Automatic annotation (TrEMBL):
The lineage of its organism: Eukaryota, Metazoa, Spiralia, Gnathifera, Rotifera. Keywords: Acyltransferase, Cytoplasm, Transferase. This is N-terminal methionine N(alpha)-acetyltransferase NatE. It comes from Adineta steineri. Residues 1-18 have a biased composition (Low complexity). It is found in: Cytoplasm. PROSITE patterns: GNAT (PS51186). Pfam families: Acetyltransf_1 (PF00583). InterPro entries: Acyl_CoA_acyltransferase, GNAT_dom, N-term/lysine_N-AcTrnsfr. PANTHER family: N-ALPHA-ACETYLTRANSFERASE (PTHR42919), N-ALPHA-ACETYLTRANSFERASE 50 (PTHR42919:SF8). GO terms for molecular function: protein N-terminal-methionine acetyltransferase activity. Its EC number is 2.3.1.258. It catalyses: N-terminal L-methionyl-L-lysyl-[protein] + acetyl-CoA = N-terminal N(alpha)-acetyl-L-methionyl-L-lysyl-[protein] + CoA + H(+); N-terminal L-methionyl-L-valyl-[protein] + acetyl-CoA = N-terminal N(alpha)-acetyl-L-methionyl-L-valyl-[protein] + CoA + H(+); N-terminal L-methionyl-L-alanyl-[protein] + acetyl-CoA = N-terminal N(alpha)-acetyl-L-methionyl-L-alanyl-[protein] + CoA + H(+); N-terminal L-methionyl-L-seryl-[protein] + acetyl-CoA = N-terminal N(alpha)-acetyl-L-methionyl-L-seryl-[protein] + CoA + H(+). GO terms for cellular component: NatA complex. SUPFAM superfamilies: Acyl-CoA N-acyltransferases (Nat).
Length: 216
């Protein structure tokens, strides 16, 4: 999956005195964004990326599992440079088969290029190919307005609040966000105007952070 983005490096939109000739000389930069597979050869790049993007450290088992996760983990490239990644897992719980987004992030310098959307669309395509995924869900720190706004734009809804979800972060609470892919009892309740019961949870996650730092 490859996209080309055009960037204007000049900020002259508010200068009405710029001549047509100078406008033609404005530098326009075209960047290519695409997704690639995680391999043993670029695993170190993912580790460095996560260290720079997320405020937590992931253990070696986390990365070892990712190496055999196939399409569930993708690196995001901007002009052949690794600048982001999305890592997921299939979760079988509550009598449902769901896809959990463990991490989805982009280096600050490369945000607002559409990389977050590109990775999330890849997640949607995985679910479409699988055909039996009930929903997509993730946790977001309650003060991460950027992430909340991004996911809501793609149909995710806050289902509940997990108290004391993050061990070493402040605030330590997280919202559970979910996007249903199949008609469930929750959907029927929502359609009838009855809101599902929201419950707090104190369960500490195996993977301590799931968030996004990219906005399109």
């Amino acid at each position: 999956m490859t996209n080309t983005v055009t960037m204007n490096n000049n900020n002259n939109n508010n200068n009405n005195n710029v001549s047509d000739e100078n406008r033609k000389k404005r530098k326009v930069k075209r960047v290519t964004i695409e997704l690639g597979d995680l391999t043993q050869h670029n695993l170190k790049q993912l580790k460095v990326l996560n260290r720079d993007v997320f405020p937590v450290a992931y253990n070696e088992k986390f990365y070892k599992d990712l190496l055999v996760s196939g399409e569930l983990c993708k690196l995001a490239y901007c002009n052949d440079i690794v600048v982001g990644a999305v890592c997921c897992r299939i979760d079988l719980s509550e009598n449902r088969r769901r896809l959990y987004i463990m991490t989805l992030g982009v280096l600050a310098k490369y945000r607002e290029l559409g990389l977050g959307t590109l990775m999330l669309e890849h997640v949607f395509k995985i679910c479409e190919r699988e055909g039996n995924i009930d929903s997509i869900y993730l946790h977001v720190q309650i003060n991460n307005e950027t992430a909340l706004s991004f996911y809501k734009k793609f149909g995710f809804q806050i289902i509940s609040t997990a108290t004391e979800y993050y061990r070493r972060l402040e605030p330590c609470d997280a919202y559970l966000l979910e996007r249903s892919l199949k008609k469930t009892q929750t959907n029927e309740q929502t359609a009838s105007g009855t809101s599902p019961v929201k419950q707090n949870s104190k369960k500490i996650p195996t993977v301590p952070l799931s968030t996004i730092t990219d906005v399109d």
